[in-house]
Design a protein that fits this description.
With 444 residues, the protein is an alpha/beta fold. It has helices spanning 71-82, 104-109, 114-121, 126-141, 159-170, 192-212, 216-229, 242-246, 257-275, 280-289, 296-301, 315-320, 328-331, 351-354, 362-369, 380-384, 398-405, 423-426, 428-440, and strands at 5-7, 11-13, 17-27, 37-47, 88-92, 152-157, 175-181, 389-394, 411-415.
């Protein structure tokens, strides 16, 4: 397979980091290498030696995938990893960042109908992300004389951990070592079990929220009453509905999220008291806090990333209906001191009506929700036999994680309830230190 690579002019960052940006042209469908191609963006950060050259470049392993190229994070996390004598390689996974994006306007420009869009999007899960990584690894490292130097170490945060498990399943011969931060995937074939567990965690976080801000029980009910009776449009043309307001609860899964949601509630109540409506500033803040318009692939494939031969069929929507406390139509009929629960990291059908840039993808999302023909993402037998060292920081649902950890051979875990989903960004130094301590530790 011939791969076209475009390398941009290197430059020096902060006087000590050499940056090489590359675009790789890869097939949309690896089963059809001569078919349509997309571009994958990769940023290589190389620490320079004291002489100001990258003489040690060939001796340093690479690191990826799982991250979009956030320059601020890549510099901070990159510097921490460079001190460990690594180069770092930062990947914008297919469909994100500077790689060929997933956006409704591109589909409209290509005059793709819902069926064509859904078929296209099926190629943007972990299996093909890993194939992209292998294509890049072969290009960068196949020229090395030492077979071990043709392998690399990967770090996966969140969904990057899912990709790491897929990598271990099917392409472990390309790996030296694996680090996972809050992303050991559940070994399921549909997302139902994931959301059953998530609903319990979200309920727990709601209780923490209302215990800290008991006045918000009444405030949130008042806001939802207003939204139910008024057509509220946010700046980009989306709708601020009851459901969309409750989706602010996704922030409960990150450090400081409870306080951020309270500030939005407080501002909304202040607006209603002063103006009898919600201000532009508040509506803009809500729009900025919800990233689905700018990252539609997250919404469209959030449930299918779990599927292996089974459909998702709007799993979160079905699961959450079992708990009345998340359903405004039921809570509003309860006594005034009963809080309505915010939802969490979940995707609902009505989001493709409420979010302006998701509307053109509604038909494709519906088709994908009821699609059953999803390929296998993990090989449990291969994972059981795994000999590659896997070092994991675990701060997500314990039960599902341990089921998977028991399947993957050679796993060492750091388990804590002191970090949320953005733990690697919030507690970077301590988590990396612990992961590298695990890496060096010998089993008794």
């Amino acid at each position: 397979m011939n791969i076209e690579v475009t390398q941009l002019e290197p430059y020096i960052l902060k006087g000590s980091i050499k940056v090489i940006d590359r675009f790789f042209s890869v097939p949309v469908d690896y089963a059809k290498p001569d078919g349509p191609h997309i571009r994958i963006f990769v940023r290589n950060l190389i620490p320079l030696g004291e002489s100001g050259t990258d003489a040690a470049e060939s001796d340093l392993p690479y690191r990826g995938p799982g991250f979009g190229v956030d320059l601020s994070l890549s510099v901070d996390l990159g510097n921490a990893l460079h001190k460990k004598k690594y180069q770092t390689l930062w990947l914008d996974p297919r469909g994100t960042g500077l790689s060929t994006p997933i956006t409704a306007d591109i589909f409209q420009m290509k005059q793709m109908d819902d069926v064509a869009i859904a078929k296209y999007l099926k190629h943007f899960r972990a299996d093909n992300i890993v194939r992209d990584c292998e294509t890049i690894r072969h290009f960068l490292l196949d020229g090395k004389k030492d077979p071990e130097a043709r392998k690399w170490t990967i770090l996966g945060q969140s969904f990057g951990g899912f990709c790491a498990a897929t990598y271990l399943s099917f392409h472990s011969d390309g790996l030296k070592e694996v680090f996972i931060a809050g992303g050991i995937p559940p070994m399921v074939d549909s997302p139902d079990a994931v959301y059953e567990a998530l609903v319990l965690k979200v309920e727990e976080r709601n209780k923490v929220y209302y215990a800290k801000y008991p006045q918000d029980v009444q405030s949130v009910r008042r806001i939802l009453g207003f939204l139910e009776g008024n057509n509220v449009v946010i700046p980009n043309g989306g709708n601020l509905t009851v459901s969309r307001w409750l989706q602010l609860g996704i922030q409960f899964g990150s450090h400081g999220g409870i306080d951020r949601v309270h500030q939005l509630v407080f501002r909304a109540i202040t607006d209603l008291d002063m103006f009898g409506k919600l201000s532009y500033g508040l509506l803009d803040s809500i729009q900025q806090s919800q990233s689905f318009d700018a990252n539609p692939i997250y919404a469209v494939l959030h449930e299918p990333i779990y599927c292996q031969g089974r459909m998702a069929s709007w799993s979160a929507h079905r699961v959450i209906q079992k708990n009345d406390r998340f359903i405004w139509g039921k809570v509003k009929l309860m006594p005034d001191d009963v809080p309505i629960y915010f939802t969490g990291e979940m995707i609902f059908p009505d989001m493709f009506e409420d979010y302006h840039h998701l509307r053109p993808l509604q038909g494709a999302a519906e088709l994908l929700a009821y699609e059953e023909d999803w390929p296998v993402l993990y090989d449990k037998e291969a994972l059981k036999k795994n000999k590659i060292k896997v070092n994991a920081a675990t701060y997500v649902d314990f039960g599902l994680v341990q089921q998977t950890a028991s399947v993957i051979g050679n796993v060492e875990q750091f388990i804590t309830n002191q970090s949320f989903h953005n733990g690697l960004r919030k507690h970077m130094e301590s988590i990396l230190t612990t992961l590298f301590d695990l890496s060096k530790r010998e089993r008794d």
